[in-house]
Design goal:
about 180 residues; alpha+beta; 3 domains; two-stranded antiparallel sheet; 3 helices; globular; transmembrane helix; transmembrane; membrane; DUF3592 domain-containing protein
């Protein structure tokens, strides 16, 4: 059954119109976004998972503001003292944040979570558009954990609503490190 709308690969951002394919022809990533917000989709594969290279590069570098600021402050101003210190701090913070998202996607255990809030972040803007933040909750060993996905600019995520179920991958020893599968960014 073909979809009547455009879907976007969560891994490399390739767009597909009126298609019913399950894997991206560009990067091989899964196209799990359902247009029926009640549909959970298939469970993530067992760890370790191999993520598309383009996705990892975007999360660590090209789509990571802190890493980009760090690179800009460090490399062109290597001969100064203050700018590289600031740059190295930003660069390391950006990579740490990226790894907190990537490691659960690659190594995490899967569970079902629920969306508890969807809101616009009006403190940020890109080309006049504010990003959406999706907050979720999941349970591990009887304890509830929350997480969020921010900086979502794609409209495909507007099909989700509070109360929808989604797959969460988390680190068993550090459940506060979690990501949504497939990613929403």
């Amino acid at each position: 059954m073909p979809f009547d709308t455009t879907i976007q690969c969560p891994w490399c951002k390739t767009q597909y119109s009126n298609s019913n394919i399950t894997n991206c022809t560009n990067c091989g990533g899964t196209l799990e976004y359902s247009f029926n917000s009640d549909d959970l989709g298939s469970e993530p594969p067992m760890a370790p998972r191999v993520l598309p290279t383009k996705f990892k590069r975007r999360i660590k570098y090209t789509g990571n503001v802190m890493t980009l600021i760090g690179i800009i402050f460090t490399i062109p101003f290597f001969w100064t003292i203050l700018f590289p210190i600031i740059g190295i701090y930003c660069w390391r913070r950006g990579i740490r944040t990226a790894n907190d998202e990537l490691i659960p996607l690659e190594q995490g255990k899967a569970t079902v979570g629920e969306i508890i809030d969807i809101r616009k972040d009006y403190t940020q803007s890109l080309n006049g558009k504010s990003p959406t933040i999706v907050e979720f909750v999941f349970e591990v060993s009887g304890k509830k954990y929350t997480g969020n996905v921010g900086n979502i600019y794609e409209s495909v995520h507007l099909t989700k609503k509070v109360g929808d179920k989604l797959w969460i991958v988390f680190m068993p020893k550090e459940p506060e490190k979690s990501s949504v599968w497939p990613p929403m960014v």
